[in-house]
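Researcher: Next entry in the queue.
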Amino acid sequence: MSEQEKQAKKEMPTSLKGMHDVMDDTYYAYQGLFEKAQEIAIYYGFKPIETPVLEKEEVFVSAIGEGTDVVDKEMYAFRSKGGDRLALRPEYTSSVMRAYLEHGMQTLPQPVMLYSYGPVFRHENPQKGRLRQFRQFNLEILGTSKSIADALIIRTLTTILEELGFKDLIVDINSMGDKDTRAGFIKELVSYYKKHAEHLCKDCKERIKTNPLRLLDCKQADCQPFKENAPSSLSHLSNDARSHFKEVLQYLEEMGIAYRINNSLVRGLDYYTRTVFEVVKVDVDENGKEKEITITGGGRYDALAKMMGSKKDVPAVGTGLGIERIMMFPECKTLAPRIMKTPKVYFIQLGFEAKLKSLCIMETLRKNRIPVYQSISKDSLGVQLAQAEKMEVPFCIIFGQKEAMDNTVIVRNMHSRSQDTVKIDALSDYLKHLK
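Model: Structure for this entry, 435 residues:
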């Protein structure tokens, strides 16, 4: 096959399935949403942390657990050229706990309160609000077992959602108990589901052996009837866990946060203990029927540190907010980033002498915090004016050969077509007073 034939057959590259390019208004929407979440987190006392996208595979396998969909079906794991088993992070909490342990944050004043933001990767079937590369905003409080930390995570999360435009939110909440008392609950749960094994979906038949708690997390229609009569984790709580759960509910009541106790709520990962929660909103479908949609969730993960090799427990609680998921809701506001200033001026240059000085003029404007649009590679006045009109920019700076010699520019009002000649030294002050 000739080189020409090979080139003819070569297809243009496209992005991977479930991984999208982000640009223009969508990029700014992501940025504005992050800035709002970040602002609220800082007000409540959280500090930033950024963990690597790549981690050792064991970081997630030991923490999330085998038998979970995340590890068994969704995690991007591979062997590096050096022979290491690596994984793209499928969630943030394990990475944050790894960083907490690795950097000796136990020696800092406790608790350590951290927020993080960035891409997360899961090999799922792409659908609306669920991609293979998506963004998460996470909140973690590490180093305290106090119930007020659970309440603070829920308060911060619901505040973020409310500031983004969500209303009438409900917190579904449950307690999975301590690791010591949970064994009795799991034993009773397995015994119950074994009696109905022949009616369960394929995955749940396997979960009875590998990960019984996930039985309560199954979304298959065949398994829903059995959840209603399944054993409740609340009946197996220790006195300490029961007191902890009661205190969390008291905090929610004091703050006026609507909640419901949900006995079948377990969350899908192995590291959760005690408090687990999901934030739910009620929608009305096209037939006028109410339907509940889970926005996000979180919980306490006191056992995670030991699962990852620590000699001591690190009590902790956290939550993660899927950015693409919340942006799909119509009530989610589109927020402009604070650092973004929409230019109200289009810079037009004509001729080589003007081009030579154009960049210096734009730098002067930048130092005075005046952004501009421009097509500096264009030469035609008509083309540049047409572009300014298309972008609906209210003012144009016209800088030609004559203006370059006189150290002036022409500022044209694109609505009234009036124009002024302005000295370059006075241009910044002139533009600042335009309305």
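Model: The mean pLDDT is 88.
Researcher: Noted, moving on.
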